[in-house]
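Quarterly update from the structural biology core.
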Amino acid sequence: MQQATKSATIWQKQELPDGWKRRAPAGFESLDDAKINQEAIDELRRLVRERLFPIFVHGATGRGKSFLAVRAFVGFQSRDGATFLRYGDFVEETIRASKNGQIGSFPAIRDTGLVVLDEIGSGIANEWKNEILLKLLDVRRDRPLIITSNVKPSELAQVFDARIASRILAGSLLELGGDDLRREWINDPAERARRVVKIV
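Predicted structure, tokenized:
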């Protein structure tokens, strides 16, 4: 019971956005708070509070999936600890550790407050990748885990396999729609004038 109460308070609104950029994972330092989708933040906060893990955040490219996951990462980081994993890097590191007779970062992943696994489905799936992802899902079963992907929930079994799809779909789904945030400048005449160059 104490765990549920603690989990309900680990991600307080006042932690966002004040100072979050100083604690963001490498590569996310320049993200603009003005582009945050507040409705998505509120829904992600609710799913975390209700412990509906794993939370599978999906949508087309550029919709803010990783940004949303980073916000949760920051909220956990200051209290219970958090680990941010880029899927491709994590797979490579795990394979390299295995070849050297080591177990990689799984013990730390098991014990941290939150794990964010970013961009599953990048690259071509194979048996090695599936087994690594399956092990991570099992290590984090019933623990805070947020997964981001361009893969649709209905395609998980085809991209990975039925075991992985079943474990992910046992949690909750958060879809981000809208436009590609990276290309918002296209609708701004001043930005188009700055960025579009045509040499004839």
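The two ends are 69 Å apart (CA to CA).
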